Amino acid sequence: MIDKIKELIAEAEAFKAETKEDIEAFRIKLLGQKGIVKQYFAEFKNVANDQKKEFGQVINTLKNTAQNKVNALKEELENNTQDAGISGDLSRPGEPIQIGSRHPISIVKNQIIDIFSNIGFNVSEGPEIEDDWHNFTALNLPEYHPARDMQDTFFVQTNPDILLRTHTSSVQVRYMEDNKPPIRTISPGRVYRNEAISARSHCFFHQVEGLYIDKDVSFADLKQTLQYFTTELFGKSKIRLRPSYFPFTEPSAEIDVYWGLETETDHKITKGTGWLEIGGCGMVDPNVLTNCGIDAEEYSGFAFGVGIDRIAMLLHQISDIRLLSENDVRFLEQFKSAL
Ligand code: DAH
Known about the structure:
Residues 108-334 form the Aminoacyl-transfer RNA synthetases class-II family profile domain. Its cofactor is Mg(2+). By secondary structure, the chain is an alpha+beta fold. The chain folds into two domains: 2-87; 104-335, BirA Bifunctional Protein, domain 2, CATH 3.30.930.10. Helices cover 40% and strands 19% of the residues. The protein has helices at residues 2-14, 20-31, 36-43, 52-83, 104-117, 132-135, 169-178, 219-234, 264-269, 286-291, 308-315, 323-326, 329-332, and strands spanning 122-123, 129-131, 162-164, 183-192, 204-214, 239-246, 249-258, 275-284, 300-307. The strands form two sheets. A seven-stranded mixed beta sheet has the order 1-4-5-9-8-7-6, with helices on both faces. Strand 6 and strand 7 (249-258) form a beta hairpin. The longest helix is centred in the N-terminal third of the chain and has 32 residues, at 52-83. It is rod-shaped. The two termini are 76 Å apart. 3,4-dihydroxyphenylalanine (DAH) binds next to strand 8 and strand 9. 3,4-dihydroxyphenylalanine binds at residues 167, 169, 209, 246, 249, 279-282, 303-305.
């Protein structure tokens, strides 16, 4: 019997397997519940006393040899399949992948881009770190102009010429400098102002600037464009243009949308008036056209600027602007289905 076991040990050492199934069959044959090793152990009691020691040793050697072989073959097979680009068990369920969500600012920005691209506007962008010319001077706000105080500016270090743009109107200037009319462009982006942070205002936020320059552009074109925009975005088509002042437009107006006074929230967000301000607009001041190299005799145009954060807060009932920059996943996850 001992010789037979020694033969089995030699066989186990020499064993080779191609597949997982071969290894498993080998394991069951030798190490399974009814396998050879178990059977020999059961024989132990019948072995003559003087042979018990040797018998025990060989049977243990057989068991260890078989087990080591199984382990070695399995490892070898796994390494081979990994080399071929397949790892392990192909029927194993996959790891769940968390789906991200678009940020509400991006959702609203994309909606606005869609609305304007339907009427032929392209998208343009400019730098957030701007120079004085593009943010102020070219926009009819020369040095010491009192209207510069309307926008509390962050300057970059001590250079008063370099600043964080206070509005996306700076992109108007860049676009007009680089392109000839007709111009139809919108410029979404982040802007910065040195303002106290609260539920309703932040030191950075987002705007979309619109610019239309061609021959014979009138205020009626501006109003119609804004009406189309608010109808598409809010489903509310009644707007009001309230006379206002911006140095870069003449005449200038503030854009109000009639929100209604049906619910308590309507009362709250419109301060009981039913009207909601969403931005500013006007006919581009001829001085601005001239500053940007466009003939103000031949061309006219309109411009407008609206706040994206404000609109996102309205559309998604967000009560605090700070939520938009805190990146709390519990907040962001709620926009998974929005777009
Ligand atoms: N730049 C202005 C602001 O940030 C918004 C604005 C008003 C933009 C009138 C315009 C405009 O293009 O015509 O307050």
